[in-house]
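Raw record, unedited: Sugar transferase
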Amino acid sequence: MNGICTLANDHVYDQLIALLNSIESLYGQSMPVCIYPYDQQTDRITAAIRQRPQVQLYDDAASMARWDQFARDIWDAHPTARQRWHHPDPSYYHRIGTHRRFCAFDAPFERFLYMDADTVLLNSVDAVFAELDHHDWVVYDFQHKDPSHVYDLDSTKLSQIFAPRRIETEIFCSGFYAAKRGLFDAALRASLLASLQNGEAEVLYPMAPDQTILNYMVMKTGLSSLNLAHSLPESQRTGNSVTSPHFQQRNHLLYDYGKRLTYLHYIGLPSKLFSRLCAGENLDFPYRDIFLHYRYLNQPQPVLSGSRQSYAAPLSFQQRLVKKLAQLNLFES
């Protein structure tokens, strides 16, 4: 069975609802969805999905515990992660909840498409699932243009583990990927962990913890992977990121020079921005109207107070990343 997965808690509630509504606008209730809980703050999510029989909140505690421990063991092997995180608590792990997305390798779908909660689906993904007939891993992004947010490029071991050509072509963003259940069983996880504990952990990038581990897992095991950003002809290939200013909106969909986007990723925009907008603040950000359409697909949109104000705040790490991505056109063909 095919299904779509995501990762969420109540802090990203509004974004999650927009994603769920966008999936339903294309598939109705025929596409099952599984939400992996980032943490225990899921009361609003639980209430919201009661009327969505095709949506479930993952509750396999043993599965989540296994992947949580796997991630902790990896970061315990990293020589500089704690210094990079700058956190006073010695038991702290940066964004440890993001690794819960790895539970998709356990259940519930035989084949799945993972989408970050800060995305909206704008086109059918049947073709993405079809590629899993020929590949183990399918992505659609341009992260390969900036490997510095996947691996530590200063590590001398990186080129010993992965040939530079592989770094240039195979790395991917962890916000949208299709894969299969059971790709990483206990024996394979143990083998990967052993390699990392034997010195290879230093190549991982600690500030994007799930992304760097996923890339390492896929590349180290040599899975058959496909990036549609490489394989699609230019006449079909599109961007997908909110950092791209040129998309055109028609009928609540987006087009990249006439080509319909598969999905839009609001990468780097903080969840509080969406929460404040949904609470009635007239905050502006790229493709805001697309978000509002899907967030309130089945209910009236909020009345926004005051004049439309551009969102401006001190640049966080994520926003600096977005700025860099925009400068490099990372999500454009």
